[in-house]
Amino acid sequence: MNTLPRDFFNRDDVVTIARELLGKYLVTEVDGVRTAGMITETEAYDGVRDRACHAYGGKRTKRTEVMYRQGGTAYVYLCYGIHHLFNVVTNAEGTPDAVLIRSIRPAEGIDTILERRGHTKLSAKTASGPGTLTQALGIHTQHHNGLDLFSPPILIEDHGVTIAPNTIEATPRIGIDYAGEDALLPYRFVVSSEQ
DNA sequence: CATAGGATCGCCT
DNA sequence: GGCGATCCTATGT
Fold first, then answer.
1. Residues A90, A75: contact at Cβ < 8 Å?
2. Which of A52, A57, A22 is nearest to A175 (CA)?
3. Any strand C atom closer than 7 Å to A94 CB
4. Which tens digit of pLDDT belongs to each residue from A125-159?
5. N or C: which end of chain A has fewer CB within 10 A?
């Protein structure tokens, strides 16, 4: 039950970090209630060289500025005007790499998670998309964007779970058709048993 | 100031 | 599997 340290996120291979985040626990503490889920799907965004990345080509805007901070920072932004998407910034300060968390398996605070989702019981869809998991954990752009990930209200823990490499599937990323050839890169990682 | 488009979801058929 | 919702962000005039 260790909080992942800064060193985990400050490494320079965002694809490796995306793989290694599978099986870790994304935890929030909002209004005194702790909710958590095991990460089961991630995508790597490889900074300035990656056409799918918001910071492609070194683009700096008010929104992307957070991506240039050091590893272990939360990058939360609003997508389609509705969904808050949660990313972990990785690599050294000045290098805008990030991992999008796309799915979790609810583990703690189930009642609160169901209430936030407007569901009455757990299902495969409770927190199985990048927009639904942030709703389930109460992650909000205004409250969490730019925060460090080492203490409440938001952090990532290692609960000793190991995901066997042969159960990890690598596929192209979702919803980035605009990225040209980079749309084909196998930067999405999924725990097979969760699909 | 006006516009286009988006790292999605959920409901409908 | 198709489509509308919904509004922020970035960009251009």
1. no
2. A52
3. no
4. 999 999 999 999 999 999 999 999 999 999 999 99
5. N
- From the CA of A32, how many Å to the C1' of C10? 36
Confidence band, pLDDT 50/70/90 cuts, at residue A20? very high
pLDDT of residue A194: 82
Sign of CA dihedral A142, A148, A154, A156: positive
Provide the CA A92 to C1' B6 distance, Å, integer. Answer: 27
Protein residue closest via CA to C1' of B6: A80
CA of A31, C1' of B3: distance in angstroms: 39
Q: Are A82 and A53 in contact (CB under 8 A)?
A: no
Output the six-digit token pair for A190: 């999924």
Note the CA–C1' distance, A160 to B5, in angstroms: 42
**For strand B, is any atom closer than 7 Å to the CB of A174?**
yes
